[in-house]
Amino acid sequence: MAASKLQALWNHPAGPKTIHFWAPTFKWGISIANIADFAKPPEKLSYPQQIAVTATGVIWSRYSTVITPKNWNLFSVNVAMAGTGIYQLSRKIKHDYFPEGEHPFTFCLQSLHLPPPKLPAAVAAASERVRSVRRLECTNSVEKASNVVSETEGSKSWVKRKRLAVFVSGGGSNFRSINQACIEGFVNGDVVVLVTNKHACGGAQYASDKGIPVILFPKTKDEPGGLSSDDLVKVLREFEVDFVLLAGYLKLIPLELIRAYPRSIFNIHPSLLPAFGGKGHYGMKVHKAVIASGARYSGPTIHFVDEQYDTGRILAQKVVPVLANDTAEELAARVLREEHKLYVEVTAALCEDRIVWREDGVPLIRSKENPEEYY
């Protein structure tokens, strides 16, 4: 009996002697590989790839039931492909479009302009208190203040997770702080690529260990594998980068990148700009100059990047006292601690679209706790 069944399988029109058997059998490898990718972080998944897997599975699972004879191997593998593709797409969409703790149903109601579920009277009364805030017109992911509109107090606006590119030249301690804040949920974004001019620097090693792609820029005699300015812009576009964060990157940013990302490139400097900034003022040189000047205060500055060193609009600063007997190393350590906090705070504001522009062109940060306050 068993031998006859095996013989029937062998001689079947879709049996092992035919391509109709082996083609779907090899497709099981795709399904198994997609199952293995369930452990991959959702930000690493590809929409085109998962859409292709899903569409292939749906189309061919249907086709396998209308051909003669029916090919159940083809049917099974394509159902598996469709299932794994749909699951991976759901993970990717949830990660990209629904912040942690927000249910997709809430967003759908907002998108369709439908009223929320009816609340108890006391909660509804509190929710209906209306406050006036400036309407924010988004300009390349950074908001610009204009007219006044009403917004329901306590409402939570949906903001897509931002994709960040970080540039480093050294150990990348600020990069590490920002990436850790993203992982822990303090920042509504993800570091999707690291750019460096030194492939062996500590920041690049950390990125490689964390599975973050590393790009060399610019192309030099020491780094012949570096990209050109135009190629760098193309690569960042491919990564769908929203903001560029310079974190100890010592090269001048090319004009091509500044034009491609207006008001979206930021740098941190270890002094209170405009003091002790400009070409040649970096690292320990800054702190030695601060102490030598007799300045009583120093601290980090985060500013927008333009065509020159350290001349872009100032976005945020943190004051650090300079003590009477400070060495440059002691002052540097104190300032660096504040850098880590400040850059994370500013990155969080960027990723929540809380940057606004005053009429005179000065950028401000809207308070998360009290949206009527700016600093």
TrEMBL record:
Lineage, broadest ranks: Eukaryota, Viridiplantae, Streptophyta, Embryophyta, Tracheophyta
Gene3D superfamilies: Formyl transferase, N-terminal domain
Name under which the protein is recorded: Mitochondrial pyruvate carrier
Pfam families: Formyl_trans_N, MPC
Family named by the database record: Belongs to the GART family.
Record pathway: Purine metabolism; IMP biosynthesis via de novo pathway; N(2)-formyl-N(1)-(5-phospho-D-ribosyl)glycinamide from N(1)-(5-phospho-D-ribosyl)glycinamide (10-formyl THF route): step 1/1
Span of domain Formyl transferase N-terminal: 162-347
Keywords: Membrane, Mitochondrion, Mitochondrion inner membrane, Purine biosynthesis, Transferase, Transmembrane, Transmembrane helix, Transport
Membrane disposition: Multi-pass membrane protein
Presence of the UniProt keyword Transmembrane helix in the record: yes
Purpose: Mediates the uptake of pyruvate into mitochondria.
Catalytic activity: N(1)-(5-phospho-beta-D-ribosyl)glycinamide + (6R)-10-formyltetrahydrofolate = N(2)-formyl-N(1)-(5-phospho-beta-D-ribosyl)glycinamide + (6S)-5,6,7,8-tetrahydrofolate + H(+)
Keyword field contains Plastid: no
Domain of life: Eukaryota
Species of origin: Hibiscus sabdariffa
